[in-house]
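Postdoc handover notes: sequence design on the structure in folder B. Input tokens:
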């Protein structure tokens, strides 16, 4: 899932990890991203957890993934700093809330994507039942950033373990201009013939999770360098690739 054996480069070492989760009727689509300085993004892996969101086992597998610690090139270990899980489907909203709200202290967030000019992520002003917080994600704002990086070939890199279908889904939408009441409105629309976009959605949610993390990268690097090497599981130096 997250693998590689290339020698780390100091400027490209990941210091944070975020996860974005798109919820489907028979699976969870999970994108794992590492973050270096200047918000450079490394798509480390994309995992499909098969199973209905109505099944507790499905969420157990996700929780196990979110608890994973990986060996870091600096010698310490690193885990998931934040996770954003889409609750906007409606059918599985309560299940997402039930998973996220008790894990709020681990920055596991129930999110809902909204179109238009919005911040990357912000707390919903409306009240949510069950005593938790709903986070609103500005999907157009983040997609603009993602597509700009892809077009320039900068600030976003991909693991060589990703399948071709991942990139097909990543390129499933395009930005168009529509006119509303005589005014141009920019929006993202699905490209004809491309039915699936889970990879794009999960990446957007992982970007949103990054915006919710306020951690000193210098302090994180110092902590990683001072930690003892992790023996339990060897992870790829893809974290630094």
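Designed sequence:
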């Amino acid at each position: 899932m997250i693998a590689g054996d290339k020698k780390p480069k100091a400027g490209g070492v990941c210091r944070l990890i975020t996860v974005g989760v798109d919820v489907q009727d028979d699976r969870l689509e999970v994108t794992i991203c590492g973050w270096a300085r200047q918000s450079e993004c490394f798509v480390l892996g994309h995992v499909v957890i098969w199973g209905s969101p109505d099944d507790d086992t499905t969420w157990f597998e996700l929780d196990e993934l979110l608890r994973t610690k990986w060996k870091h090139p600096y010698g310490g270990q690193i885990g998931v700093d934040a996770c954003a899980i889409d609750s906007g489907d409606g059918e599985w909203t309560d299940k997402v809330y039930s998973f996220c709200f008790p894990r709020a202290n681990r920055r596991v967030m129930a999110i809902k994507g909204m179109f238009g000019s919005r911040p990357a992520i912000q707390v919903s002003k409306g009240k949510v039942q069950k005593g938790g917080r709903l986070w609103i994600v500005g999907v157009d704002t983040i997609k603009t950033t993602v597509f700009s990086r892809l077009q320039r070939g900068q600030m976003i890199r991909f693991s060589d373990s990703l399948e071709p279908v991942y990139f097909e889904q990543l390129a499933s939408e395009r930005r168009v201009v529509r006119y509303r009441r005589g005014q141009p409105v920019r929006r993202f629309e699905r490209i004809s013939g491309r039915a699936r976009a889970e990879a794009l959605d999960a990446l957007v949610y992982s970007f949103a999770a990054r915006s919710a993390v306020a951690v000193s990268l210098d302090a994180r690097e110092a902590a990683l360098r001072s930690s003892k090497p992790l023996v339990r599981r060897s992870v790829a130096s893809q974290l630094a690739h």
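Context for whoever picks this up: Residues 1-10, 229-241 have pLDDT under 50 and may be disordered. Don't rerun without checking with the PI first.
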